[in-house]
Design a protein that fits this description.
Helix 8 links the parallel strand 7 and strand 8. By secondary structure, the chain is of the alpha/beta class. The protein is globular. It has a 6-stranded mixed β-sheet with strand order 6-7-8-3-9-10, with helices on both faces. It has a single domain, classed as 3-Layer(aba) Sandwich (Rossmann fold), CATH 3.40.50.300.
Amino acid sequence: MSISATTTVDGRTPAADSAKYAISAKDLNIFYGNFHAVRDINLNIERNKITALIGPSGCGKSTVLRAFNRMNDLVPIARTDGEVLFHGANIYAPDVDAVEVRRRIGMVFQKPNPFPKSIYDNIAWGAKINGFKGNMNQLVEGSLKGAALWDEVKDKLKQSGYSLSGGQQQRLCIARAIAVQPDIILMDEPCSALDPIATLRIEDLMRELTEHYTIIIVTHNMQQAARVADYTAFFMVDDSRTGHLVEYGPSKQIFTQPKDKRTEDYITGRFG
């Protein structure tokens, strides 16, 4: 089954909350073999906003992020229970195509990973394999402009993506994600390998991208979450090392008036 704005699991018109939220986790549980990685995650992600997932290492935030486009399916021992609703459809329903899910919900990884191709082909390749029939030159230019990279590379499109700086490579990867016209862009610590100047460029770009996309970012950087995220979700682990959601709300509230003391302890550096 393909996923569209009018698709639901049972064929009905999407519920009102599917119009309000870009994606929603409902009683989401993820296992790696016998290990219960995250439990009972309920999370509604607002459209055209930036949502940050924060918490100590091992709390499951990257696992939850990867559940939003079924990347965990690529781990043979991974198992997912519960629902992730996108346009009203559960992306884990048996008849949903995981490849289509990943086209509609793109991902940018921690370390820039351009393809061993030219800058032009880095953008064009994904569009080609997804059956793009339009003007490829316009798509490449538009995607690079969308990633605030066009002016820096327009005269060297035939050069390797590896010829770019780390920050430029990460923006190239964002342009590559944009090129297949997703609804949502997932970012797993996209700035952790970058210097402060490149980090600020990526943060500025994220704000610009929310005009057209919903962004979900995993970050260990509390200052970054406070700067760029509209909403923040705080995760931690219990005694069995299972991750769970402690608190979720507008970033201003999470960082200035958290409702849970564990959230306050984490963002003030008392633990984690």
